[in-house]
Amino acid sequence: MILESEIQKNQNIALLLEEGTRTDRLESIIRELITELGMDLADQHFKGTPARVARLYRELTRGQRLNPAAILKTFHSKHSELIVVSDINFYSLCPHHLLIYRGKMHFGYLPDGRIVGLSKIPRLIQTMASRPIVQEDLVSEIADTFMSVVKPLGCVARATGRHDCVAVRGVKCHEAQMTTVALRGLFREKSSLVEEFHQVLTRVDK
Q: How many C-beta atoms surround the C-beta of residue 49 within 10 A?
């Protein structure tokens, strides 16, 4: 009889082997891209580039291989007022050009008997951002995941990002930034809660 731990170990090994195969294939694709763009892979600066770029894109898309809901460990609490975690750095990939956008996100929620560990909110945001997704959907999916797992009375996510696809191509507007907001639960029903959230952020900025 095979122990459950042994089964898990075998599954992890299989996943690592599969990941290694996919990484090798990704390196080959990047090698072809470099060649197609007219660059010399024999040049000292390009010799390790396929492997480096493959690792970069695996890192930028790691959120696709993780379960964000598993991050949100909760604790019982009597606290019933607004909780805000601010200035959370994030970066993501624009799915239209596979260029990076990055910025800061602020998150608030109104607990209903349960709270989450402080580090879990930045981890959730950074995990869900590490995949190709537009910023508009990013804040919505973060809010929906939090509501589904933690079941607070409401939550709000606000992100401000700068997009390389706007800065380095097209209009080439380096200073443009986009702010997106997602409101859930009581934050949709009570404008006073949204105002309190923004007031907290204003005080933090000072």
A: 17
CA angle in degrees (0–180, nearest 5) for 199-193-128: 85
Domains and CATH numbers, the chain: 4-60 (1.10.286), 73-205 (3.30.1130.10)
Cα dihedral value 30, 31, 35, 39, nearest 10 = 90
What one-character DSSP code corresponds to residue 132?
B
Q: Measure the CA dihedral 138/141/146/148, to 10°.
A: 180
- C-alpha 45/C-alpha 130 separation (Å) is 27
Stated pTM of the model: 0.84
Query: What angle in degrees, to the nearest 10, is found between the helix axes of 120-129 and 135-150?
Result: 140
pLDDT in tens, 158-197: 999 999 999 998 899 988 999 999 999 999 999 999 999 9
Write the pLDDT tens digit of every residue in 124-171: 999 999 999 999 999 999 999 999 999 999 999 999 999 999 999 889
Residue 25 is encoded by which pair of tokens?
């294939």
